[in-house]
Queue: 4 jobs
Job 1
Amino acid sequence: MDRQTTTYLVFFIVIALLMGLRIWRGSRARKLQVERMWIRPVIILVFLSASIYGQPPPMTPEVLVGLAVAIGLGLVMGWYRGRMVKVSIDPETHALTSKASPWGILIFLGLMVVRMGARFVLREEHDVAGIPVAAIIDGLTLLYAGNVVGTQVEVWMRAKKLLADAIAAKAAGRTVPTEVIQDHAGEKAHG
């Protein structure tokens, strides 16, 4: 096995372990802090910008359209994945929690596997069907980043609304269920 293949194999094992941790953490409810949910998308966008700036793809109209489609598709997939996240609030303490659905986790992991697999398989190529490999990898990276950003925005919007609704109900003296849950099927109240 050559050095580059060994490096990719070690990287793949580390990523597989991180994915396993992500699945394990995603299957449990996590505390949400609405005021800090902007941080993760900003960090991803900064690293993404640095990555693309460091090794920019060819700036042809076709490549730029392809990259725009990739990020748009990633945002839509992320929005869908975010709709599958269960967001809950305790009306008394206003503590928010989220729990990822198994399908949402699988979508996320599928994107990671495709992106890493493409990087490994295409490492020796310069172009595929006339498309530069750098543009393909950057497109997959934008698809992944759009997915994460779309998920965060969707969950943030729902968490913000649930928090505002719980505060308003408590201020109005209305009876509030012990837990309010909003997931991909819409709002549901549980008493």
Job 2
Amino acid sequence: MYKKIIVLLLLSLVPPGVYAQDEIETDRPDQTETTAIVPAGHFQMENGFQHTQSQVGGSDLMLPTSLSKFGISDKLEFRLITNLIYNKVADSASTGLEPITVGFKVNFWEEKGALPETSLIAQVQLPKVATKSLRTQYLAPELQLLFENTITDAIDLGYNIDARWDGKSTDPEFEYTFSPSYKLNDKLKTYIEAFGYLPPKQHIDNWVDAGFIYLINKNVQIDIAGGYELTSHNHYHQFFETLGFSFRI
């Protein structure tokens, strides 16, 4: 009896987040951003290494792309994105840091029946905080509405709509994503996704991708994915592969 009382007293002194914290949720490797917020007081980093074949004899490598997050409250997180890129076209190559992106994600409400959980990302790319050759002329803001529905205990559906600027023109580009995911077991999840971009005064650019996400423990995740462009540029379909490692502390 006394042992039970002592155990209960010790547990009462431990903050709930220490033993009741949810599993890590990330914005990668798909294009659909999660509605989830990093728990208050926690830091999360999502790293990816990506190869994109953009044309015959031309490719881009992200070495790496990193998204750092810090939970400010249960409804708000701070975000910082850095992309170190290696670009190769024919016999020429260049390396540099793309303009960094800063912003926040706010959760509006949780899922209620058919009403999806809904969050908003507002962020901006800083044109001069980059390698000189990759600097842009304008601030490049981005607004994303994020939605998620739980279909069954194993199936979720995430979808986003997005308006972004590239820092080179004053016209926005629009994006959509649609990504059902399936939990194979307690550690492994898979997804398929359709997404696309509508650049200014151009036709829509449609893609598909798929991947796997493996949970090493509740704070560490690895992933692998690949995507293929359904439309084409100069009769060439782009494609990409990516590997990722994410952690939370």
Job 3
Amino acid sequence: MNNFHKIFVINSQKINLMKKILFICLTIIASALIVFPAGAQSQQPQAPPSSTAKIKWLDFEEAVALNKKKPKKMFIDMYTDWCGWCKKMDAATFINPVIVEYMNQNYYAVKFNAERKDTVAFNGKQYKNPNPAGTRSSHELAMELLSGRMSYPSFIFLDENLNKVTVVPGYRKAPEFESILHYIGEDAYKTQKWEEFSASFKTTAVE
């Protein structure tokens, strides 16, 4: 075998060896890509979960019973089944996490259908619907709590002794509603005018 042939054979062997090494390297890289395909995705930031907390709504009778054991202010959402703005309050303001948290901590929250058909006992008196078979017939307790001003939604605030503090009529967005809850909940209504309190209140609720 001449020198040229020897060199050719040696070079061929080196080339084959390099091909094998390159093949092995590519195989390892491909395997890594197959085993860990989601590695880059795991580094992407995830959106924070939405709040699932809800207002702990009670029946009027339940709230009265709880108040006897542990006195707390009562919030009453006076609504009707046909009231569009009542549904808007449920879908927007009442699910705001700031509203939910403060309401659950400071009030017994009550849903009261102003046209309910049954009889309700309160403060030693029986209240009923004078025309339960009729349409849009107001319940006697609803009429008393609203002083005959039957507009919906209306929000009634009772103190710890179940005396009426005030009635707030109409749809309210979360920031404004937050200030109202604090105004009553902190007893600020006893010492401050609403205009003064609302002007200085720093809301944390976002629409």
Job 4
Amino acid sequence: MADSEAPVPLTSFQRSILAELARYPTEDRYLAGGAAMHFAPNTARYSDDLDFFHDSEVRVASAFARDREVLESAGYRVEIEFSLPGFVRTMVRRDADATRIDWAHDSAWRFMPLVRDELGGLLLHPVDLAINKVLALAGRDEPRDFVDIMFAHHQILPLAALCWAGVGKDPGLTPISLLELLKRHGRNRPEDFARLQLAQPFDLVRARTAWLDALTDADRFARERAPAELGCLYFSLDKKRFVLPQGDEPLAKQRIVQHFGAPGGVVPRPADSRVEGPGTF
């Protein structure tokens, strides 16, 4: 567990690894997964691994080789558990401490550019992390994913907005089909959550009630929105953040613009209703 002075829910060992790698900054990798999502000080759980992602399989191999050299030079043992093109799983150890680290390839398509953190280096933007978690939960039933998606629903964006945008990243889905997949999950038992390293107590009864309400709201939202908006996020020009549009009121009247993803991610621009290229506020 992190110590009392830790601003983020990483173990001291994970922080030491990130600090070592931060001495050699690179644009070739970024932190994603649970560790990146739970950089927030009000997070729900600790991550038991670090997930580094890259925009190509070639970069996975080169970045892993460089990072392995850095860590081993600093006294860490990097044990490869298995390696495939575009994916390397390791266990990194020093003395009695250990953590799993993955280097993997993922699509460069995302809604927002990467963000930079002094400790973590480049991180996937919170909204992209949340959307990825929704898509992950649709394909598996892991207790950690349920904890993460409830955190995202309350702290990042409502489930309705995440599902609506998620089909932009996975065009093989519709919001309704994605919701049908999600409805099959979130049925874990209390003992499943007892195995997680939680940063705060997890009220399963309350979470399950909130989950069912979120699914209902997301289903209603998906059936009410115009098909032309499918796969977008909604950016409030007044609040300067992503929001969930309210009711049937036109987006223009709410001062909301649509924001679509692109390779590398893009920053919302108030001049465009569809954001498909690089831009600034």
